[in-house]
C-alpha cells in the first residue's frame, strides 16, 4: 500500500479533502466542486485535480463525464490504506469501528505470524528481533523510545514470517500500536510492564516453538486489545479544515 507523503500544498489539499470525505462533510454520491475549492485553498485547479487523483487511487472519489468528481460509497474505499486509516482515526466518528476492527485483525494476524516466524526465522531475523527487544527493555518509562522499539519488534516479527503478504500488513500493526500508545503509553499514565510478554514471544521464536510463540503473542495482545477497543483521545489538529 502506497503511503502518500503529504508534503506541500498538494499534500495539504489531499489531507483536507480526505478528512472531509471520512467525516461525511462530503457524503457518498456528492459532487466535489473544484471551482469552489480553488479560491478556498488558494491553489490552482491543477493542484486540486492532482489531489483528487490521489484520493481516487484510494477509492474515495471517482470521476465521470458530465457528472464530475463524486464521493464513492464506503465499500469502495481502500480501508487498509495508511492515509485512510489515519483520517478515520482523526475524524473520530462515533459509528466508526476502526480501533475495534484493528484489535480483531491483530488477533487474527499476529499470533499466526509469531507461529510462522518461529519456524522460518533466520539467524539475521533473530538478531534483529533481539536488538529491538533490548531497546524495548531498556526504554523503561521513556514513552517515545518504548513506542518506537515496540513497533520495530512487531514489524520485524511480520518480516520474519518470510511471507510477503504478512509483511504488507505492517500498516495494520502500525496504526494499532500508534493508537494504543496514545491511549496508554503517555507521561503520567500507568501500565503493566510489557517486557515479560515480549520476552516470552522472543524466547519461543528463538526456540523454534510455534505453539508457544502463538500462545505468547496472543497473551501479549490482551491489554493492547482492551486499550484499542476503549478508543483513543482526540487528535490535536493545528488547522481545522
From TrEMBL:
SMART domains: FCD, HTH_GNTR. SUPFAM superfamilies: GntR ligand-binding domain-like, Winged helix' DNA-binding domain. GO terms for molecular function: DNA binding; DNA-binding transcription factor activity. Residues 7-74 form the HTH gntR-type domain. Keywords: DNA-binding, Transcription, Transcription regulation. This is DNA-binding FadR family transcriptional regulator. It comes from Microlunatus antarcticus. InterPro entries: GntR_C, TF_FadR/GntR_C, Tscrpt_reg_HTH_GntR, WH-like_DNA-bd_sf, WH_DNA-bd_sf. It comes from the Bacteria. The lineage of its organism: Bacteria, Bacillati, Actinomycetota, Actinomycetes, Propionibacteriales. Pfam families: FCD, GntR.
